[in-house]
Inverse folding.
């Protein structure tokens, strides 16, 4: 139903009747977002990740990049033989690359014309930049009243911090996420050293997910308005900081209800246990208030060249905990005093020591086999080398080979598939992230109606690339 809804409104009424068309006319796929055109003005991760998700499920994504240099992600981290990052080849999948210089008046005019024929403008500039260029909602809605603006920034489009540059690392810290991650100083319960960050730009990707979700909601809302004879655009305002706050589970409500006063548990609920409230801080490799779930040391494996190995055990369910204790021969740590999570939290040190003693005398492979046979959730800590060979990954084609086409041939690049998998939907990667400006001529001629001479002139003047 949602697929039909979104595709119907890809053909819409604009102030100029001649502009009424199926905007993404090149796509005939029966996918949820087929017929939706997205004009991606973002760069690096947050906006482009949203664009990748939308493009995978049928949207035509036209990515605007500065001529000559392109999206900075093209040259981030490891570079391939052609000087382009394989990461960009992954994040740019199924997109059309159009090189336009937004610093030039003619370049901005071209983008305006494309926006007038698009369903969504996706951007992650600092708030105010598009307005300065004359490309903000108030500039484009007169040309296309039903245009959706999906805007990703550090702190949102409003508020005293709106104009601040917002990188994922900083916003992760401001959201409270970095405060709860790291190793614990047993003397202070604070950080033992700097807060630990995941070795990815998590805030950018989480914001990109929120942006994609918000875009689809806005498309559905627009269709509802259209059924009532209204043309209604909408701004999807995504903040990296707020996106990370959305991951913070019960931390804020717990603090609000219990953090301002000392908390003595009601004896009818938790007999003989007093739990003073502490603002949640770092917890190493465990999770505060849930026991047992942790990383446990094992004997070195032949594959790790003598380095320590770890296994992840998640047995915090009551039945799972009992299974774990039977598997490790510690049934003395079961019974009424360990029956439920709040009992185990009060006895965490004892429980963790017993599990650690058991895993430390075994290899990770042995621990994995024994606990899997016992029906206890367990996982090895795998590197990318092991992931691409993983039997579950292979069985579900979770890593795909994508061809990078070059004039003299090309090569395959392994990439994680775009998820989720929609049953009955043939969503797939059609091409890797394209070379810079690979679709400029196509879009200028087919979508904007420019002739070859005009395209040549614009390129000579540095407006397009």
């Amino acid at each position: 139903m949602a697929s039909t809804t979104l595709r119907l409104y890809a053909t819409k009424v604009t102030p100029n009747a001649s502009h009424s068309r199926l905007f993404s006319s090149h796509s005939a796929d029966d996918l949820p977002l087929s017929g939706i055109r997205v004009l991606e003005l973002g760069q690096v991760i947050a906006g482009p990740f949203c664009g990748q998700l939308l493009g995978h499920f049928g949207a035509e994504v036209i990515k605007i990049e500065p001529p000559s240099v392109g999206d900075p992600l093209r040259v981030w981290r490891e570079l391939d033989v052609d000087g382009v990052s394989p990461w960009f080849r992954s994040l740019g999948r199924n997109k059309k690359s159009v090189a336009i210089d937004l610093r030039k008046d003619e370049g901005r005019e071209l983008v305006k014309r494309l926006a007038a024929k698009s369903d969504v403008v996706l951007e992650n500039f600092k708030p105010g930049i598009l307005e300065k260029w004359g490309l903000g909602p108030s500039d484009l809605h007169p040309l296309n009243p039903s245009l959706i603006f999906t805007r990703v920034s550090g702190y949102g489009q409003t508020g005293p911090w709106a104009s601040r540059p917002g990188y994922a690392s900083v916003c992760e810290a401001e959201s409270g996420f970095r405060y709860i991650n790291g190793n614990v100083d047993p003397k202070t319960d604070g950080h033992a050293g700097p807060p630990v960050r995941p070795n990815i730009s998590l805030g950018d990707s989480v914001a990109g997910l929120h942006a994609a979700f918000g875009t689809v909601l806005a498309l559905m809302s627009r269709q509802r308005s259209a059924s009532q004879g209204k043309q209604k655009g909408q701004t999807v305002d995504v903040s990296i900081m707020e996106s990370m706050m959305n991951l913070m589970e019960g931390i804020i409500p717990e603090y609000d209800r219990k953090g301002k006063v000392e908390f003595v548990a009601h004896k009818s609920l938790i007999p003989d246990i007093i739990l003073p409230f502490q603002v949640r801080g770092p917890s190493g490799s465990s999770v505060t208030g849930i026991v047992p779930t942790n990383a446990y040391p094992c004997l070195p494996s032949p594959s790790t060249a003598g380095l320590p190995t770890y296994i992840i055990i998640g047995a915090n369910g009551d039945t799972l905990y009992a299974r774990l204790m039977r598997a490790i021969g510690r049934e003395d740590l079961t019974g009424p005093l360990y029956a439920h999570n709040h009992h185990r939290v009060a006895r965490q040190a004892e429980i963790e020591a017993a599990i650690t003693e058991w895993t430390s005398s075994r290899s990770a492979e042995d621990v994995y086999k024994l606990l899997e046979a016992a029906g206890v959730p367990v996982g090895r800590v795998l590197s990318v080398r092991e992931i691409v060979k993983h039997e579950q990954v292979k069985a579900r084609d979770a890593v795909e080979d994508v061809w990078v086409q070059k004039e003299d041939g090309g090569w395959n690049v392994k990439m994680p598939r775009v998820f989720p998998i929609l049953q009955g939907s043939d969503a797939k990667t059609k091409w890797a992230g394209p070379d810079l400006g690979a679709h400029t001529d196509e879009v200028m001629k087919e979508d904007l109606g420019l002739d070859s001479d005009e395209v040549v002139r614009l390129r000579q003047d540095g407006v397009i690339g």
About this structure: Confidence is low (pLDDT under 50) at residues 1-28, 261-271. Residues 177 and 248 are 7 Å apart (CA to CA). The chain is about 35% helix and 15% strand. The two ends are 40 Å apart (CA to CA).
